[in-house]
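INTERNAL AUDIT FORM
Audit reference: QA-55
Scope: verify that the stored structure record matches its stored sequence.
Auditor: D.O.
Record contents follow.
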Amino acid sequence: MEKRATCNDPTAERSSAETADHDLGGQVRAAVWSLFRRFRSERPDGELGDVALDVLVHLHKRGPQTLTALSERGGVSPASMSQTVNRLTSAGYAVRSRDADDRRKVLFSVTEEGDRLGGATQARRNAWLDARLDALDAEDRAVIARAAALFAAIADS
């Protein structure tokens, strides 16, 4: 049974505060993961999986990338990313080309169809999130803006 803090027991209050702070990491992880899953579910219909769509959106936003850069960004092995880009190139969404500065490197970039799909995926996800944020009052949006800045600082540390 959970012990409740009372005004007469400062150690119980401190214990509850420490428990809440300790659980904060779990709460943040759960909320971010849930938001991430929901955000990824906003996608056009089609045969591409989440990883392939994420690569396509990344190429749409950032331009040509090497297999190594895509693997590192995705947190997967080059062999796994190779399967993903092979699916994208076979489906006509991406192409391989040689890097003009270093002919040994292969770059992956989107085709016109890949650019369209990547842009549509990004727009759909952004529209979903923007609509949810717009439904909040100004005070809640300010809290989320502050939290976003803190999350970015934590991620960059």
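Auditor finding: record pair retrieved intact. Residues 10-41 form the longest helix (32 residues).
Action required: none
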